[in-house]
Structure prediction request, 238 residues.
Amino acid sequence: MALFSVKMRSSALGSHISGAERIVEEREVPDVCAAMGTRALAHGKGKPDSITVTVTAIDGEVAHIPALPIREAHCADPAEARETVIDALAPLTPHAAEAWELLTGVRDMRGAILFHATTGARLEPDHARGVRVTSMDAATATGERPETHSGKTRVTDALVLASKVAHHPAMLAEVCFSDDPDYTTGYVASREMGYLRVPNMKPVGSEMGGRLFVVDTDDPADLIDYLEHTPVLVGEAK
Ligand code: WAQ
Ligand code: MG
Prediction:
């Protein structure tokens, strides 16, 4: 069955306010467009003066992949979180501690760092922006009641992204924490370890935040194309 990508972005005076993306069946397209418009107008960051909704038919089949299973680490403070993340990365790269330092040192990136597992070098073409993962949605979002999806949580969004990311063979692991000063739980994820939630990755009130992908490839062009463009629907955990 043909599916459609629906993307929304809103801005005011040329600066970005919010964005959203869904992959849905044709009959859901009108409701999803309406819901995105409503959400864009109600966004806490302010009233947009421009809302763009783009609907694109997806050519061919969309890959369905399972969600990573969720686990929880117990970390009392950022020092324990650092240890948990470095322990998780250590079997995959000799540069695990450098990956942590790099991730916790960047600011205001829109995308993710690509971190070469063998050398610790950065592979993303634009270091200020990073690589942005798009073209994914929760498979449960398709169906009779698109409005049930509108309350999707931060964890669901992160799990969908992490599951798409982990699925690529050149991807060894991901580490993420939000730049939202009030949200201090991050995660480390991979095909082997699943999605491990890591509390207290940063102190409350900190504006640090970012994403880092530990990769095993010398030429990331195919990987970047997959992350940016290959449509993926993420189903229930296996
Ligand atoms: N692709 C790549 N990188 C991204 C993307 C994307 N689509 N969206 C955000 N980033 C990067 C960017 O550098 C942000 O600063 C950083 O990730 C954090 O983004 O289970 O909310 O959207 O409770 O603030 C984790 C939930 C929530 C953990 C992460 O990230 C849990 C979150 P945010
Ligand atoms: Mg954020």
